[in-house]
Amino acid sequence: METQTIHNVPTITVGQIPGIIKSAYVSDADCQTTISLEGEPGIGKTAIPPQVAEELGIGCVLVSAPLLDPATSAGVPVTDIDTLILQWATDARWPRVETHGERGILLIDEFPQCLPMVQAALSGLIWGRRMGSYTLPDGWMIVTTGNLKSHRAATHSTPQHIKGRLERYNVVSDFASFKNYWVKTNKNDIVLAYLENRSDQLSTFDPNAELYASPRGWEKVGSVMDADVDPDVRNVRIQATIGKAEAEGFDNFVNSMTKLPRLQEIVKDPSRARTVDDPGDQFLLLASLASAGPADKAAELVAYVQRYKPEMQATFVQYAEQKNRALFLTAELTKLKQETLGE
């Protein structure tokens, strides 16, 4: 389904989020900027800010806005017995220097999904950094995330006076950043190989569908694939995660893997071992060889890999670097890296 956007709001990919947050945090000494990330469910909006905070060496506090109580979100009334003056005791979850550090990111997750009364309370944080008796520390920047009303995600209308205080971005998924994350975190090779060939299946969000594929869903699929379970159980769990139609295409791809040449066949005679033509099959095969190939067979593996296009050779090198350091550090891989990546 076509990606939905917000009128007159810039569209960015998930891969661009870190650069935008870092720029806003570094350039705004008083942390007055509030970044709003809005887009389809399950594309990684919530996962990115904590990663950026870790890279910056600062703290991160996540608050789920829909879970805030309208009656107490701005604080709980407490009477000072001596003065009989009503004061407000604020929630311990909000960032405090003594607890969370002097600098950080306050991530208010699913902001448009919280009740209007909660939005009203949180608006004080957004435009004045105060809510009841609580004041957000100077070194803390606010990032909000949420879905659009058109996504049918129980979204409430955010008042214009709050929108006007936000630096708003419409976020869409992109395969390049998904692939980078997947390789770095050693996720299941089969899932990535399938999406390498069918990137249109990375996100199939439809507000009218009961189930759909998303980056978050594919991460769950990877976990299911890694589990040692009965194939029938595995297949039905995948269907329950991304939907029957999407799961059927993935299952057909998994079944086609049985046709790929095996490691023993390749190292026995790399010049004559079977090659594959489909780009997805190539990716899966070379990624698997890089991950599981023994270092003492580096010469044979490189000889076989060189029968493929340079971009596939580069995939082999990159996967070996991420998942098989013993193979990556051989003289044969060093030479192949220089030839394919210029390093």
Characterize this entry briefly.
The chain is of the alpha/beta class and 343 residues long.
Task: Please provide a written account of the structure.
The protein is α/β, with parallel strands linked by helices and 343 residues long. It folds into three domains: 11-172, Rossmann fold (3-Layer(aba) Sandwich), CATH 3.40.50; 181-258, no CATH class; 260-343. 45% of the residues lie in helices and 15% in strands. The protein has 16 helices and ten strands. It has helices spanning 17-27, 48-56, 97-100, 116-128, 160-163, 175-184, 189-197, 215-226, 231-242, 244-256, 263-268, 279-292, 298-305, 310-323, 325-328, 331-341, and strands at residues 11-13, 34-39, 59-64, 76-80, 85-89, 103-109, 130-131, 134-135, 139-146, 167-172. It has a six-stranded parallel beta sheet, covered by helices on one side. α8 (215-226) packs antiparallel against α9 and α9 crosses α10 (244-256). The radius of gyration is 25 Å and the shape is elongated.
